[in-house]
Amino acid sequence: MPSVLITGANRGLGLEHTRQYLTKGWEVLACCRTPSQAEELNTLADEYMSLEIYELDVIDHDAIEQLATLLAGRKIDVLLNNAGILGADLTQGLQHQTLSDMSYEIWRELLEVNVLAPFKMISEFQQHVASSDMKIILMMSSSLGSISGNTVGGVHGYRTTKASLNMLTKGLAAELEPSGITIFSMAPGWCKTDMGTDLADVEVTHSVAGQQRVISEIQFSDSGSWFDYNGDLLSW
Ligand SMILES: NC(=O)c1ccc[n+]([C@@H]2O[C@H](COP(=O)([O-])OP(=O)(O)OC[C@H]3O[C@@H](n4cnc5c(N)ncnc54)[C@H](OP(=O)(O)O)[C@@H]3O)[C@@H](O)[C@H]2O)c1
């Protein structure tokens, strides 16, 4: 059975990916910051032997290295770099990320979680992925990271991190090519999660089903590209 490692698997899109892959019979290595409080994951673990839960704060590089060592020799078909933060509460408006009101503390945290962490995950887990059958890395991006689509400004902290993530997708595609790894960015749509809030227009189950279809159909020649959850190719 194929295996997937998911960061930020305790809620939102990560949790739904966990659920849907378990239903498909996949082995799921679900990472989260506080396993003891991850109630839904623990309930799923009671039902599925193929679910393993690992503690991982993705800004902790030592912890990433330790997990990679613990899992040395394990094949990981799909590395799903999902954990991310918006740095704001959408229901309160996107405060502290504008020209007149910027929190540099929040911006630094955004960079740590949304950019440096996925890079570190890839640097530590590339062998696990390269030794698998599918050899896929998904970078959970956002349409807010589109440069061509940014016509209104604002949300600079989050936008720059997702644009950076997309740049990593493009650059790492070239570096990972000899390993046979396919890496691509995903725009999941505006989803009803804690981050997206109930104002969002896409159901989490629908987005994740679409994303998993894209993962199952992705080709090596697609490496370094950006797709939405419907499988449509996006421009940067
Ligand atoms: N929802 C949307 O509309 C939307 C749209 C575009 C892109 N995205 C992207 O999709 C991804 C998932 O978003 P979501 O909507 O599912 O958000 P969410 O419901 O807020 O969940 C975020 C997940 O990331 C985890 N996380 C945050 N910081 C972490 C850290 N330092 N270490 C480990 N895990 C950490 C959270 O864990 P804790 O529970 O411990 O905080 C949680 O599991 C993100 O990359 C986001 O940018 C979402």
Describe this protein with a few key phrases:
about 240 residues, alpha/beta, Rossmann fold, 7-stranded parallel sheet, 6 helices, about 15% strand, binds NADP nicotinamide-adenine-dinucleotide phosphate
Layout of helices and strands, plus pairs?
Elements: E1 3-6, H1 12-23, E2 27-32, H2 39-47, E3 51-55, H3 61-70, E4 78-81, H4 104-130, E5 136-140, H5 156-176, E6 182-187, H6 204-217, E7 225-228
Parallel strand pairs: 1-2, 1-4, 2-3, 4-5, 5-6, 6-7
Bound molecules: NADP nicotinamide-adenine-dinucleotide phosphate.
Model regions low in confidence, pLDDT < 50 over at least 5 residues: none
Give the radius of gyration: 17 Å
What is the CATH H-level superfamily?
Answer: NAD(P)-binding Rossmann-like Domain
End-to-end separation in angstroms reads 34 Å
Report the principal-axis shape.
globular
In total, how many domains does the architecture comprise?
A: 1
Bound molecules: NADP nicotinamide-adenine-dinucleotide phosphate
β content, as a range? Answer: 5-15%
Q: Could you give the order of strands across the largest sheet?
A: 3-2-1-4-5-6-7
Oligomer: single chain
Topology, number of strands: 7
**What count of helical segments does DSSP give?**
6
The major pleated sheet works out as: 7 strands, parallel
The CATH architecture designation is 3-Layer(aba) Sandwich
CATH class: Alpha Beta
User: What would the CATH topology be?
Assistant: Rossmann fold
Mean pLDDT across the residues is 97
Order of helices and strands: EHEHEHEHEHEHE
Q: Could you say which structural class the secondary elements and strand pairing correspond to?
A: alpha/beta
Helix content: 25-40%
